[in-house]
Amino acid sequence: MPKQTVLTIGGVPEHFNLPWHLAIEEGRFADVGIDLRWIDCPGGTGDIARGLAEGRLDLALPLSEGAIAAIARGVPMRILQWYVRSPLIWGIHVPAGSEFQSVDALRGRRFAISRYGSGSHLMAFVAARQRGWNPDEDLCFVEVGDLKGAIAAFENREADGFLWERFTTQPYVDQGLMRRVGECPTPWPAFALAVSERLAEESPDLLAAVGAVINEICSEMEERPDIVAIVASRYGLARQQAGEWFGLTEWASDATLSRSALRQIIGTLDDLGLLERPVTPERCCVSGCRFSD
Fold first, then answer.
1. Which residue(s) pair with 179 in the sheet?
2. Tens of pLDDT along 166-180?
3. Is the pLDDT of residue 244 over 70?
4. Which fold has domain 5-87+189-291?
5. How many angstroms separate the CA atoms of 195 and 198, rounded?
6. Top-level CATH class of 89-185?
7. Domain locations along the chain
8. Other Cβ atoms closer than 10 A to 141
9. Which helix (H) or strand (E) holds 191?
10. pLDDT tens-digit map of 184-212
């Protein structure tokens, strides 16, 4: 076996990241000399950005919009490629016993967010804009850390609304801990594969090896006969829900990026006042990345 280079990768503990766990378990990274170690980041993209900034993570799987917002804040990270090309479907949730029966009933109410700058924070602005609200007047936030913190905030009547990926929250909806009153799909690819600036500058060949392994296993996901059962078992979903999610999910199988999608994210965040400084697609990505348009 070749000499192993230790790398850390972080992501939210959810079903989208199953290909990484399978690749680690099956020795795919070890076969190319990489000892890849997974770190759960339950606090979402804000937690991921902090891990990259502090050097705890070498690679990460942030939401695409969260990655760009973090880069604009000066977090030393770059996008290597897309990870999930399909949109993320955000569920809009309320406490199970609350009087709220629609998304519009949440106008001006308190939204739980994992962290400022996280996906749950950024997408609340996107959802508000889609509904014609004034985000400066119609949104207020309660920082709760993660999904469990949001459930606790609901139970303690400290928050009224919460955005999180709809299949991740499904077990809690089924348990009666929250209700879903709407959805908000992102108009761009859901997740990026991001890397620290240090690793991008020092080890481009290592990153190419990581990308080749994960793209290969992602391209094989549909051919695995037991994949829906694995998703259901590992992530607490009913088989029907796991199958529905799997049918909606498209992982990337190559290293190309779309300038137009990146510009759409940048433009949306800029319009909402969520970029601390101007950025371009080229500034957000690793040097020499491949654009498809």
1. 94
2. 999 999 999 999 999
3. yes
4. D-Maltodextrin-Binding Protein; domain 2 (3.40.190)
5. 8
6. alpha beta
7. 5-87+189-291, 89-185
8. 16
9. strand 191-196
10. 999 899 999 999 999 999 999 999 999 99
Query: Is the pLDDT reported for residue 91 higher than 80?
Result: yes
State the pTM of this model. 0.90
Structure tokens at 53: 């900034």
Helix axes 259-271, 119-130, angle to 10 degrees: 80
DSSP codes joined into one string, 68-87: HHHHHTT-SEEEEEEEE-SP
pLDDT at 2 over 70: no
Closest CA to 165 of 149, 185, 144, 192: 185
Segments in the chain forming alpha helices (H): 18-25, 45-54, 64-72, 119-130, 135-138, 147-155, 166-174, 197-202, 204-220, 227-235, 239-248, 259-271, 281-284
Residue 46's pLDDT is 87
Question: 101 in helix, strand or coil?
Answer: coil
